Amino acid sequence: MKLSTIKEILPTLENVAFQLENGAFVPEHFHITEVGQITKKFIDCGGVVRTEKVVNFQLWNADDYNHRLKPAKLLNIIKLSEEKLGIEDAAIEVEYQAETIGKYDLDFNGKTFVLKNKTTACLAEDACGIPSEKQKKNLATLSMNTSNSCTPGGGCC
Asked: Record's InterPro entries (predicted)?
């Protein structure tokens, strides 16, 4: 989800809720402690230099159980971040700590924001030796060459 999309969704909500893909909810007294833009410049295993930019939200739980972040407050935090930091309209990445800090993509299911599990991938499969997937063949459609076939009692086995 891009920043522009969350800005369109927030005014339609009464509450802001985040849910993990496994169905568990981020406690409703969470804080968004950071909104920023992260620029990552790197080289992939094929030698291509790449740059990625994401808008980063950091979620944090405190012991202030009466705290509730309202949609208008989050929208104001986003607008302030855009003004002060020059944040671009990029994909949102959410940091949330369970056992360790996890990074998630963001989606919306019509009611809550969903923290989608991120995965790693090779960006240069052709350059780093990953074999292409074998073509699957139906054995029933293969023609049988009887001159090279082995038969019971034929002495070829």
From this structure: DUF6428
To the question of pTM greater than 0.90 for the whole model, the response is no
Q: How does pLDDT run along the chain (157 residues), one tens digit per residue?
A: 999 999 999 999 999 999 999 999 999 999 999 999 999 999 998 899 999 999 999 999 888 888 899 999 999 999 999 999 999 999 999 999 878 899 999 999 999 999 999 988 888 887 877 766 666 767 666 666 555 666 676 666 6
- Would you say residue 67 lies in a domain? yes
Domain hosting 19: range is: 3-117
Domain count, the chain: 1
The answer as to whether 33 is a domain residue is: yes
Structure tokens at 135: 């073509």
